[in-house]
Specification:
The complex is a heterodimer of chains A (about 260) and B (about 350). Chain A is mostly helical and about 260 residues long. Chain A has twelve helices and no strands. Chain A has one domain: Orthogonal Bundle (MetI-like fold), CATH 1.10.3720. In chain B, strands 6-7-8-3-9-10 form a six-stranded mixed sheet, with helices on both faces. In chain B, strands 13-12-11-14-19 form a five-stranded antiparallel sheet. A four-stranded antiparallel sheet of chain B has the order 2-1-4-5, with helices on one face. In chain B, helix 2 packs across helix 3 and helix 2 packs parallel to helix 4. The radius of gyration of chain B is 24 Å and the shape is elongated. Classes of the chains: A mainly alpha (about 260), B alpha+beta (about 350).
């Protein structure tokens, strides 16, 4: 065979990809290694190995509470983002109406707008018209920034659909509510699962909105990590982060098993 | 009493008139093909009958009731889509059960029993639990077919039923469809652009052209006695050429461009002057009998097709294609006699 590119090119490509992989994974590896440190300070490389920081966070009232808050927040966000985002995606893909493109762009705008700007606006609104920052404020904030992901994934799902399914169901005697329940919604399952995954992760991971909407009695896990880093940086931060990384991996593997996410994302 | 009739259906898409005062009656148990080129309005008509499109004006009756204003879900019909439109998240048997489940008149057990019966009618009983993606194209089509017949609809509509199948499966499915129709007697209308499908399946072909009926009749009538150039050309392709018609002493004859003359069968359609004629490729023989019209020609080229051979013959100043049994085909490219029964030369209206 005659080489179509200089021999150097495949080599350079491989090196480039390797460098990128290292660049992306290294921080995670550093965090995981630090979490196993026997030192009381966050240093790299760790002087010795120990699981003591995992014991530390599992016994820490503040971490457990923050983890619990984050979990509730993420689950509430997922539920809201799905219940609002899925019908929006269905409406955008099934109906043709005036201003459709504008509305679609509006729904997706949180993807592009810095969440900082949104967080400031949210804070002002909540201070002016509600009782100031609160758990509810966080839920609303996270729902807004995660809805676009649900709309994107569900829309991608619907775009692949045989447009005749709905007509076929109609001719077989299905009323409109039966068509939604038995034909259209089941088709959105994969997109909804992928959207839920994004919503969960983004909410669980968010520090920006949480920072602005910080209420006295509400502390999420990223906020806890942040303040620990600020005041007494020890490897417990790395241990929490490692748990979060593992959780994400488990979620991805699980969803992929059940829904075959690779088809959508 | 007609099982289905449409009256004066008019339908426009924007400025384009797709159906023009269209009338069609279908008797109970008939198997009707709506045949025509793409854009002739056949699919729109099918969708109007199904209720998926609303006509600008006109009336639709199915099984004795007016359904013009009735939504598709209340028409008690079945439509098999070209894409089959199987519900991907339901197993084959659940797909087949779906119409019964929507109607909700039978118990779950009875629904499943009837669904299973329909599956075995299409010889798919053993694959009931499979999901559509686990089935081949031909099997998916059988599921779609079972789903269409399970509810004993007043009217069965099929949209290009065989077009997604390869040649071998198509033949198999043609036999299957015909057998099912003979066994169940469901009034069936199907849309196709494939003349072989229409000829092979239907009891009656409605040939459509530009939103109107071009010609209607049994497959044999349409094939053997097309009335127009369009009909002759659309069904099976044919030799279509112009002859100069003349009459003397009650004997009609036609002359070819080079002056050769042949007798014409007496027909009320004949009048002196130029006229288009159709001669089916299979009507031409190299071994003419006494009573046949004959003409001398030269074989230009031949394609061996297996049992038959196609010959291109230069005769009468034009080119004539003949498809003959291979063992009765002249192979020497020399001057030869070709002939046909006079009534095989069909005068056409040139509209």
């Amino acid at each position: 065979m005659i080489a179509s590119t200089p021999r150097l090119v495949p080599f350079a490509t491989a090196m480039f990809l390797l460098a990128m992989g290292v660049f992306m994974l290294l921080p995670l590896l550093v965090v995981i290694a630090s979490s196993l440190s026997s030192s009381s300070f966050l240093v790299f490389p760790p002087p010795g190995l120990s699981l003591q920081w995992y014991g530390e966070i599992l016994g820490s009232q503040a971490y457990i509470e923050a983890g619990w808050t984050s979990l509730k927040l993420a689950l509430a966000t997922v539920v809201l983002a799905l219940t609002l985002g899925t019908p929006a995606a269905i409406a955008l893909s099934r109906f043709r109406f005036r201003g459709q493109a504008t509305i679609a762009a509006l729904f997706l705008s949180p993807l592009i707008l810095p969440s900082l700007i949104f967080a400031i606006g949210l804070l002002i609104v909540f201070s002016r018209y509600a009782t100031g920052p609160s758990f509810l404020g966080l839920v609303i904030g996270h729902t807004v920034i995660t809805i676009p992901y649900v709309i994107r994934t569900v829309s991608a799902n619907l775009a692949d659909l045989d447009p005749h399914l709905d007509e076929a169901a109609r001719i077989m005697g299905a009323r409109w509510w039966q068509r939604y329940a038995l034909v259209i919604l089941p088709q959105c399952r994969t997109g909804m699962a992928a959207g839920a995954f994004f919503a969960f992760n983004i909410s669980f991971d968010d520090a920006v909105i949480a920072l602005f909407m910080r209420a006295p009695n509400v502390e999420t896990l990223p906020m806890r990590i942040y303040s620990t880093l600020e005041f007494s940086p020890d490897p417990s931060v790395a241990a929490v982060s490692t748990i979060m990384i593992l959780m994400t991996i488990v979620l991805v593997v699980m969803l992929n098993r059940i829904f075959g996410l690779s088809k959508i994302v | 009493m007609h099982q289905m009739s449409v009256r004066s259906i008019v339908k426009h898409f924007a400025d384009l008139k797709v159906l023009d005062e269209f009338d069609l009656d279908v008797a109970k148990g008939e198997f009707v093909a709506l045949l025509g080129p793409s854009g002739c309005g056949k699919s729109t008509l099918l969708r109007i009958i199904a209720g998926l499109e609303t006509p600008d004006s006109g009336e639709i009756h199915i099984a004795g009731r007016s359904v013009t204003a009735l939504a598709p879900e209340h028409r008690n019909i079945a439509l098999m889509f070209q894409s089959y439109a199987l519900l991907p998240h339901m197993s084959a048997i659940e797909n087949v059960r779906f119409p019964l489940r929507m109607r909700g008149q039978l118990s779950r057990a009875d629904q499943l029993r009837k669904a299973r019966e329909a599956m075995s009618l299409v010889q798919l009983g053993h694959l009931a639990e499979r999901y559509p993606r686990q089935l081949s194209g031909g099997q998916q089509q059988r599921v779609a077919l079972a789903r269409s017949i399970v509810g004993e609809p007043d009217l069965l509509l099929l949209d290009e039923p065989l077009s997604n199948l390869d040649a071998r499966l198509r033949e198999e499915m043609q036999i299957e469809l015909k057998r099912l129709h003979e066994n169940l007697g469901l009034t069936t209308i199907f849309v196709t652009h494939d003349q072989n499908e229409a000829l092979g399946l239907a009891n009656r072909i409605t040939l459509m052209n530009r939103g109107s009926i071009e010609q209607q009749g049994t497959p044999e009538e349409i094939y053997r006695r097309p009335r127009t150039v369009f009909a002759a050309d659309f069904l099976g392709g044919a030799n279509i050429f112009e002859l100069e018609v003349s009459e003397s002493d009650g004997v009609w004859s036609g002359s070819f461009p080079d002056g050769s003359r042949v007798d014409l069968a007496v027909s009320s359609d004949l009048e002196p002057g130029k006229c288009q004629f159709m001669l089916r490729k299979e009507a031409v023989t190299f071994d003419p009998e006494q009573s046949m019209s004959t003409i001398t020609g030269t074989i230009q080229t031949q394609n061996y097709l297996g049992g038959q051979t196609r010959s291109l013959i230069r005769a009468g100043g034009i080119e004539i294609i003949a498809v003959t049994d291979s063992d009765k085909t002249e192979t020497d490219r020399i001057e030869t006699q070709i002939g046909w029964r006079p009534d095989e030369l069909i005068p056409l209206q040139n509209v």
